[in-house]
Amino acid sequence: MNEHESFLPYNLPDISDVEIDAVVETLRSGWLAPGPRVKRFEEDFAAFTGAKHAIAVDSATAGMHLALIASGIGAGDEVITTPTTFAATVNVAIHTGATPVLADIDIDDYCIDPAAIERAITPRTRVIMPVHHGGSACRMDAIAEIAHRHNLLVVEDAAHALGTSIGGRSIGTFGDATVFSFYPTKNVTSGRGGMLTTDNDALDARCRLLALHGMSNDAWDRYTDRGSWSYQVLAAGYNYTMSDFQAALGHAQFSRLDEFQRRRREIALALNARLAALPEIVLPAERDGTKHAWHLYVVRLRPETLTISRDEFIVEMKERGIGTSVHFIPIHHHPYYRETYGWAPGDFPVADRAFETMVSLPLYTRMTDAAVDRVATAVEEIVRDHRT
Predict the structure, then answer these.
(1) Which of 33, 49, 90, 189 is the most exposed place for a label (fewest CB within 10 A)?
(2) CA distances from 320 to 328, 358, 360, 386 (A)
(3) Is 232 in the same domain as 274?
(4) Same domain, 246 and 326
């Protein structure tokens, strides 16, 4: 079966012999716990982002939770974030005992609107958690100015943003802490995992302590010839560390980041070139002075120009053997958050408008030019068949 006859998924990881060999070598080394490969991954990742510290963790969720807990966030505090995100961004605030507060988005890039942040601030606000949606950069200069003026922390959810930059400066150094994801769908994967970056020495030390049960010595220190079996538990910590074989996979993937990003940009530009001729489709934006990581390729339908809904569009793409997704069902649409915080559809009208019309088309490095053409052709056909 060739690619024109088979189902084209929304996303696939790109694993080569480089990654396989790195993992096999690690498995044969006898060292699976956090160790030398984790340290090397952390060092190289910090150098890439320009951050002083990088901490490898077992998920971006763990990294965001660590950043909040280590910063002393808890009951009585409020954390402002966006409704257009995955549940993890809100859940980590809830797990500290804090209250999540939502601020609406900008329709152009689906990132949190600084003006909406300003309106959401109360005397209890402690943290702003911007989300770099799909690899598009949030307006970090404006967010940093708001945070400085109100004495707030900034913890960036950069799960989509490895490869994103503003003014040539990599995401990873704008906030007090930034957290990246290496989930299988991300631009770089370790199968499961994440990375927390910070320039704050005290925050780095506290996060490292909390990531391994609050222990005074980590496994690498304790089980080498320069370590000691003795340790003390200094805090009620968590089991949030990355294993060495995860780091081997992640670091090998990271070594291919330039290759991955070149291909992602090629695909995004090719889709832009084809779909720009369709006034019924709003293309993803890359603001001046920023570099999009192209983790997602999100288009929006103009409902007034089409006789089908977004959901019907997705069905027709699937009938043509093409997978799509939606990023995201807004937080205030989910039953738990509606029942707990009293939110409802309509509360954040820009996020609602985006959600009703947005579709994530396939974009991953293993896509061939023929597959890209197939996606563009399918969109063209559906639009042509359903124009008003």
Answers:
(1) 33
(2) 23, 19, 16, 15
(3) no
(4) no
Catalytic residue among 52, 186, 291, 318: 186
- Regarding whether 92 and 57 lie in a shared domain, the answer is yes
CATH of the domain at 221: 3.40.640.10
With tokens 């996060």, the residue in question is: 207
pLDDT of 253 strictly over 50: yes
Dist. CA 55–CA 2, nearest whole Å: 42
How far is 2 from 219, CA to CA, in rounded Å? 48
- What integer pLDDT is reported at residue 228 of this predicted model? 75
Domain that residue 313 falls in: 257-385
Percent of the chain residues topping a pLDDT of 70:
96
Residues 46 and 147 in one domain: yes
186 in active site = yes
9 lies in some domain: no
pTM of the model: 0.96
Q: Give all strands (DSSP E) within the chain, no chain letters.
A: 53-57, 78-81, 99-102, 125-129, 153-157, 165-166, 169-170, 177-181, 194-198, 281-282, 290-291, 297-301, 358-361
Give residues with Cβ within 8 angstroms of 85, minimum separation 6.
131, 133, 157, 328, 331
pLDDT in tens, 308-352: 999 999 999 999 999 999 999 999 999 999 999 999 999 999 999
SS3 state at 235: coil
